[in-house]
Task: inverse folding
C-alpha cells in the first residue's frame, strides 16, 4: 500500500483531510511548514493509528528551494520503497486587497504556493503515482468566477481548476484519477489570514460557513470515488453554475460588491 501525501496539513481543510485518511486506514505523509505544526494533527489522528507511523516533512511551499528540497525528500522515500497512492495539494492562502493596494511580494508568494508548488507537486505525482493512484487538488468555488478584492487569489484557483481538469483527461488512460476539490466558504483560519474580516461579506455575516470536517468528508468520498469535481454543499454547487446563467461580468460585479470593504 502506498501513502497519502497532504500539503498544508497543520490546520483547516488539510488537517481534516488527514483525519479522514487516517480513519480510512491510509498511511500518511504530512507536509507542514515547521515540524511542530504537525503536532495537533498527529494528536487528532492518533485514535486511528495502525501500521506505519505518519511521516512528517517540512517545506515552505512559497520558497522554490524549499519545494525542491521536499521533492528530493519524497524521491528519497521513493527509493526506499515508499510511494504515494494519493497526493493532496491543499496548502494555499488568500490576500484581501484591491490590486493597487496589495503587496506585490505577498501576491508573488501566493502564486508560488497556490499555483507553482501545486503544479510542481502535480508533475511529481504524475511521474510517481501508479495505476489506481489519485491526485487531489484543492481549488475553490472562487475558481468559477472573478473575485474583485481578491483578484489574484480567485485567478490562482481558476488555474487550479483548469489545470486539474486537463490532468484528469491526461492521466485517465493510466488509470490515475484527478479530483478538483472546490470548497465554498469554510470555517478555518483562511478568512482571518486573508484579512477578509474587513469585507462586507464577513462583517455583515452575508456568508454562511460550512464546517471544515463536513466539507472534507464530502470531498474525501468524492475523491475516493474518483470523481472529477468535489463541491461540498448544494448552495456552493448552485453558486458555481450562476456565472454561466448571469454572465461573468455580472458575477464579478456581485462578488466585488460582497467583498467591498465595510
Ligand atoms: N476556508 C475556505 O473558505 C476555503 C474555501 C475554498 C478553498 N480553500 C482552500 O483550501 C485550502 C486550505 O485552506 P484552509 O481553509 O484550510 O486554510 P488554513 O486553515 O489557513 O490552512 C492553510 C494551510 O496551508 C498551509 N500553507 C499556507 N502557506 C504555506 C506555505 N508557504 N508553505 C507550506 N504550507 C503553507 C498552512 O500552513 P501554516 O499553518 O504553516 O501557514 C495551512 O496548513 C487552501 O488552498 C484554500 O485556498 C479554502
Result:
Amino acid at each position: 500500500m502506498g501513502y497519502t501525501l497532504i500539503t498544508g496539513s497543520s490546520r483547516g481543510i488539510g488537517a481534516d483531510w488527514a483525519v479522514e485518511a487516517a480513519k480510512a486506514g491510509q498511511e500518511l505523509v504530512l507536509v507542514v511548514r515547521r515540524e511542530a505544526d504537525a503536532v495537533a494533527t498527529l494528536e487528532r489522528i492518533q485514535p486511528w493509528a495502525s501500521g506505519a507511523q505518519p511521516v512528517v516533512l517540512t517545506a515552505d511551499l512559497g520558497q522554490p528551494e524549499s519545494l525542491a528540497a521536499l521533492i528530493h525528500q519524497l524521491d528519497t522515500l521513493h527509493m526506499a520503497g515508499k510511494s504515494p497512492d494519493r497526493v493532496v495539494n491543499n496548502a494555499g492562502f488568500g490576500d484581501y486587497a484591491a490590486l493597487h493596494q496589495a503587496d506585490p511580494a505577498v501576491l508573488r508568494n501566493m502564486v508560488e504556493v497556490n499555483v507553482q508548488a501545486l503544479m510542481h507537486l502535480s508533475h511529481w505525482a504524475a511521474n510517481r503515482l501508479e495505476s489506481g493512484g489519485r491526485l487531489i487538488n484543492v481549488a475553490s468555488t472562487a475558481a468559477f468566477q472573478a473575485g474583485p478584492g481578491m483578484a489574484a487569489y480567485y485567478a490562482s484557483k481558476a488555474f487550479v481548476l483548469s489545470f486539474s481538469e486537463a490532468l484528469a483527461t491526461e492521466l485517465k488512460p493510466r488509470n490515475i484519477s484527478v479530483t478538483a476539490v472546490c470548497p465554498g466558504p469554510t470555517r478555518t483560519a483562511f478568512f482571518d489570514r486573508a484579512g477578509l474580516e474587513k469585507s462586507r461579506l464577513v462583517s455583515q455575516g452575508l456568508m454562511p460557513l460550512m464546517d471544515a470536517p463536513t466539507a472534507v468528508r464530502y470531498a474525501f468520498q468524492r475523491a475516493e470515488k474518483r470523481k472529477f469535481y468535489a463541491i461540498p454543499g448544494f448552495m456552493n454547487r448552485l453558486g458555481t453554475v450562476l456565472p454561466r446563467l448571469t454572465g461573468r461580468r455580472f458575477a464579478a460585479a456581485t462578488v466585488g460588491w460582497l467583498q467591498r470593504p465595510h
Remarks:
- The pocket of NAP is lined by residues 8, 10-14, 33, 37, 60-62, 90-93, 113, 138, 140, 183, 185-186, 188-190, 193 (CB under 6 Å).
- Residues 104-128 form the longest helix (25 residues).
- The first strand starts at residue 3 and ends at 7.
- Residues 3-195+208-242 form a domain with the Rossmann fold fold (CATH 3.40.50.720).
